[in-house]
Amino acid sequence: MNRVLLVEDDKSFGYVLSEYLLLKNFQVVWEETVSAALKALIKHSFDIAILDVNLKNGSGYDVASEIKDKRYDIPFIFLTARDLKIDQLKGYRYGAEEYVTKPIDEEILLAKIQAVLSRQTNHDKHQQTLEFKTLTLDKSKRELKVDSTSVQLTERESLLLEMLISRSEKLVERKEILQRLWENQDEFSRNSMDVYISRLRKYLSEANISIRNVHGKGFVLE
Q1: Which of 114, 133, 142, 198 has the fewest CB atoms nearer than 10 Å to its CB?
Q2: Which helix (H) or strand (E) holds 125?
Q3: CA distance 71 to 199
Q4: Helix (H, G, I), strand (E, B) or coil at 16
Q5: Is 147 left (phi over 0), alpha (psi -120 to 50) or beta?
Q6: Does 75 sit behind a cis peptide bond, omega within 30 degrees of 0 on the bond before it?
Q7: How far is Cα 145 from Cα 60, in angstroms, rounded to an integer?
């Protein structure tokens, strides 16, 4: 299930849009201010952001700048009541995937969101090597290289490490890992996940790379 950061200060429109996305099987974190959105970026991982340009205290451009400056790997779509060419060009210069003018058609917006996520998925599939400090993961071979040491990973170890590397130094929630890799959140799955985390910690220990446990929430690769 994809998680969406929605930044919109119009309470009525924000509620309608968040409820629509929920009905379409998205997890939605709806924030009304720039400061709240920036905190959400630290607290959660997102697959896409929908940013209203004109906010009462700042703008969607401020959130977009933070996404780019902190290198959050999150595509974003701008929403705005302004449809001037200069405004659209400004949005694309900030790195927007799409620029949607209000009043919006929810079905059209949904199609744009799905198209962006599809492009992102295809890009990730083609990126076969992930790196973090002295760590390199070859996804196709399921091979982990730490300094000069090479380790062959199981499929689930590789997928778990991929999730952690792709969001390095950010929280990856336990429930998201369980849902994606175990498709279950029962006690057996939780215990199994902890075993896999322990294995990865052992592989990474010599490189001074750790997987920090955030009690009751998830893990941070750092």
Answers
A1: 198
A2: helix 106-126
A3: 28
A4: helix
A5: left
A6: no
A7: 39
Over the stretch 74-99, which tens digit does the pLDDT of each residue have? 889 999 887 777 877 788 888 888 88
Residue 157 CB-density burial (10 A; 0-12 exposed, 13-18 middle, 19+ buried): buried
Q: Which residues contact 19 (CB under 8 A, 6 or more apart)?
A: none
User: Which amino acid appears at position 79 of this protein?
Assistant: L
**What is the DSSP-derived secondary structure letter of residue 100?**
E
Beta strands in the chain (DSSP E): 3-7, 27-31, 48-52, 54-55, 58-59, 76-80, 98-101, 129-132, 135-138, 143-146, 149-152, 172-173, 211-214, 218-221
Per-residue tokens: 46: 């997102």
Pull the structure tokens for residue 193.
């996940």
85 φ, ψ (degrees, to nearest 5): -60, -40
Two structure tokens written together for 209: 């790379």
Q: Which of 20, 207, 9, 221 is nearest to 113 (CA)?
A: 20
Question: What are the CA-CA distances from residue 44 to residues 4, 38, 41, 57, 72 (Å)?
Answer: 10, 10, 6, 22, 11
- CA-wise closest residue to 218 among 178, 162, 161: 178
Q: What is the pLDDT of residues 40-77, one digit of tens each?
A: 998 888 989 999 998 888 999 999 998 888 767 788 99
